[in-house]
User: Fold this.
Amino acid sequence: MKTIFITLSLFFYFKINADSKVIPYTMDDRDRMMRLEAKLEEGFKTIDAKFDAINSKFDARFDALQRQIDFTNNLILTLIAGLLGSIIYMWWDRRAANAPIKDAVELEAKKNKNIVLALKEYANINPEFKNIFDRASIL
Assistant:
């Protein structure tokens, strides 16, 4: 037990002496720290300048890419508008071109209806004519 006590006493003695050493902070140390801070500031400034240059390059590339995307979008919209315009024009043109034909067909149908009515009346008057129509299944 005595040896443990002596060992612990010596350990704490040397520990206290080791911890109590004061390292003086001299003017040379302060000057060295100031120079180190100045060098670090200069290094950070150059790094910031390099990052700014890289950022400006990225911004230029992104702007160019955005312009290409905008051009492509405008081109696609122009093509879609042209296709829709062509489809609408074709629909209108077919309708306009078919209108006179439709009118002519309706007029001919009206004339044929009138002819059939006239023939029916004549068939009522003339039995021989009615007989010819009945055999041909016209009336």
User: Anything to note?
Assistant: The mean pLDDT is 86. The chain has one domain: 2-136.
